Amino acid sequence: MLFSLTAKAVASVILLSPADNGSTYMIHPHFRWVEDPGADRYEIQIATNSSFATLQQSDSIPVPRYIPKDWLTMGSDYWWRVRAQYAGGGTSVWSESRRLTVDAIYNVYRVAPSNSLESITNTIAAAQADTPSRLIFDAGSYNLDLPDGSYLFKLSNVSNMYIEGNHCEITMNNPNSGFSFFTSCEDILLRRFKVDYATTNGIPVTHTAGTVVSVDASTASFVFQPLENYLPPDDPRIRDATSRRWGCLMDPTVPGRLKTGVNNWFDITTNVVALGGNQYRLELSAAQAGRISDFEVGDTFVKSAIYGRYVMYSQFCTDITYEMVTSYAGAANHFIGHWNNGIHFLGCASRIKPGRLVSNGNGGYVGSGYRTGLWIEGCLTEGMFDDAVNCANKPLNIYEKTATNAFVAYQVYPAPLLAVGEHLTLYNPQSGQVNGTFGITNLEWLATAKKWKVTVDGDLGEVFPGSENWNTQLFIDERAHPYAYIRNNTFRNSRRYGCLFRSHGGVIEGNTFSGLSEAAIHGENECSSFAEGFEDRDVRILGNTIEDCGYSSPFFSQDHGAIELGISAYGTTCTQTVHQNIEIAGNDIYDWDGKGIAVENAGDILIHDNVIDNLNATTFYPGGKNYGVYLNHTANAVVTGNSLLDTRPMDAAVQVENSTNCIVLDNQTL
Question: Which one of 255, 261, 262, 531 has the fewest CB atoms closer than 10 angstroms to its CB?
């Protein structure tokens, strides 16, 4: 059913955690309560007394959880309570109030800029062995030469550790090293660090940038001249990157923004020829030779050098908070994580350093298989070479179907990523069909084969065993980023998507998206390129501002929109309504092309009170159709109260195709 438009009277909200009279060492504790299905939002109060006469924090959020952006004080007691707010204006009664003590940490370890790397490493090891602990880096600059494959902070099975950076500047001289790596940790706070990957002279070591001097279409090559303060492309740190060796054509006037109307990436071979005079010949890979037509003399080109060592990484962790951590470069993602339960980013940034053209060589906040979704608030990403946010749920693949209701999965972890009682949604990319959602009734670890045998509560139907993208995919519903919350962030001037969003119960609210080469918000499984997904359920996209997003040639050729939902298939078309119960409301979308809001393969959709218009654009990009709102293979949708007053000639303000029970009324159109 669609989101409720009327108030509903219910009992008070039931609190989950922290427990009453509980304690924590975290100054950004994670508050949770039971979802009220009729609630529009929740109001939470945190006070320094039980009467709530003195509020420390008060907030309204649309998900049944809360991370306070402003930290609480160690050694202090707090009381908290929650009530539901309804769309019609009513509220529930307040929940019970609970007391929470934020305990002080007395085990303190300090690091100074004058310390050697060995001394710093030893101090980190001592602090993680003596938790609860505070590890404090004094303000200043640290130049670090970490060994290949290592991380400055590498914590395993550590709890209750507070790592304070005091806004110090960490310069990583080796691109094949990372900043932080947490595995099986709980209640860790990493805050107030500035991280750069550069030489001691400030020259970036994770990418190079330069001018296209000439183009040779016959050899799919071009002559490249590095800009001042950039490494030459035959420098081993650039040429010998062990992961992607890709690059992008850039807008010459706006750092981070890509060139309009061309492909959004180019694969460069390791065949770098020095020509003298600080000029080098680079060539495209054979598979991309045709893309040389996108290059013109005078273009600006940035070549990334990715090694796979992330700025920040976490796996199998619970309640990790990154606060005010800024990266200016990265040899891979700003952050990536797998199979976590509550990862929070508060006031973090991936920022273009003055004089540079890009920041991180890959994505921003990337997470897969979370039991509690990402919380990202007050953050900035710019100059990214991949999605600013990617909430993914990587699938299981079927090794062998052993019965109508049982299969053996490709799964090497003896500690399973799933549990009896949880649910699997089965999707066949070859047919574009969802076979259904199944409850897990039994798990058996096959030690010799290092695989899991899984039994479910129904007939799986037709399956295509194998581990390729086109084979049957099984998504763990409980790991679909439940209640992910992306609030009040800025995502600008970067490659690809602002939010690649797959969540159950998640919300994207109050963000600003601008200058992104693809859609601002994209909900799709992308099965033809990446094995991840899957769908959005009970998701809300509220009050975001989107301007000038979607200008690369793939955006136009693939018929995308500024906000878009769909389901991809392998060599066919999905016609099912897979995304369910989606609200898109109060968003301002300007200077768009193709489609303002595009919803495909979805059921129970409410699109209301959005503005889709132009501020600076006077024409649409030539070729293709332009629709303010587009519905396809969709059922039970309401499109109402939207302002579709773009002065450019749209093909239709609202276009509905292959859909049923779609109501379009009371929209403002020219």
Answer: 261
Residue-wise DSSP of 230-285: ---TTSHHHHT-SS--EEEEE-SSSTTPBPTTS-S-EEB-S--EEEETTEEEEEB-
Q: Which residues contact 287 (CB under 8 A, 6 or more apart)?
A: 267
Residues whose CB is less than 8 angstroms from the CB of residue 86 and which lie 6 or more positions away in sequence, other chains included:
4, 6, 7, 8, 38, 39, 40
Element (H, E) at 427: strand 423-428
Upstream peptide bond of 255 is cis (omega within 30 degrees of 0): no
Residues contacting residue 448 through CB under 8 Å, at least 6 positions apart = none
Identity of the residue numbered 74: M
Q: Which residue, chain included where needed, has tokens 């796996």?
A: 315
505 touches 61 (CB < 8 A) = no
Number of helical (H) and strand (E) elements in the chain, helices listed first: 3, 55
SS3 label, residue 294 = helix
Hey, is 312 helix, strand or coil? strand
Amino acid symbol at 83: R
Residue 413 has pLDDT above 80, yes or no: no
* DSSP string over 639-657: EES-EE--SS--SEEEEEE
Quick: pLDDT tens for 90-123: 999 999 999 999 999 999 999 999 999 999 999 9
Nearest to 102 by CA among 56, 167, 143, 38: 56
Task: For CA atoms 658, 664, 667, 669, give the dihedral sign.
Answer: positive
Q: How does the average pLDDT of the chain come out, rounded?
A: 95
**Single-letter code of the amino acid located at 635:** A
Collect all residues with Cβ–Cβ distance below 8 Å to 468 and sequence separation of at least 6. Answer: none
Per-residue buried b or exposed e for 29-58, using 16+ beta carbons within 10 Å of the residue's own CB: bbbbbebbebbbbbbbbbbeeeebeeebee
Alpha-carbon span 5 to 292, nearest angstrom: 53
CB-based contact 342:17 (threshold 8 Å): no
Q: Average pLDDT of 612-640?
A: 96
pLDDT band at 241 (very low <50, low <70, confident <90, very high): confident
Neighbouring-strand partners of residue 398: 409
CA proximity to 551, closest of 643, 642, 617, 632:
617
* Per-residue tokens: 432: 């574009």
Alpha-carbon span 383 to 397, nearest angstrom = 34
From 204, 109, 202, select the one nearest 153 (Cα to Cα). 109
Distance CA 444, CA 238 (A): 46
Predicted confidence (pLDDT) per residue in 169-214, tens digit = 999 999 999 999 999 999 999 999 999 999 988 999 999 999 999 9
pLDDT tens for 558-573 read 889 999 999 999 989 9
Q: Which residues pair with 423 in a beta bridge?
A: 439
Distance CA 503, CA 501 (A): 6
Residue pointed to by tokens 């850039």? 250
pLDDT of residue 6 exceeding 90, the answer is: no
Q: Distance of CA 116 to CAs 41, 113, 182, 344, Å?
A: 50, 8, 23, 31
Residue tagged 């008070």 (tokens): 12
The pTM of the full predicted model, rounded to 2 decimals, is 0.97
Could you tell me the pLDDT band of residue 360, with boundaries at 50, 70 and 90? very high
The rounded distance, in Å, linking the Cα atoms of 184 and 154 is 11
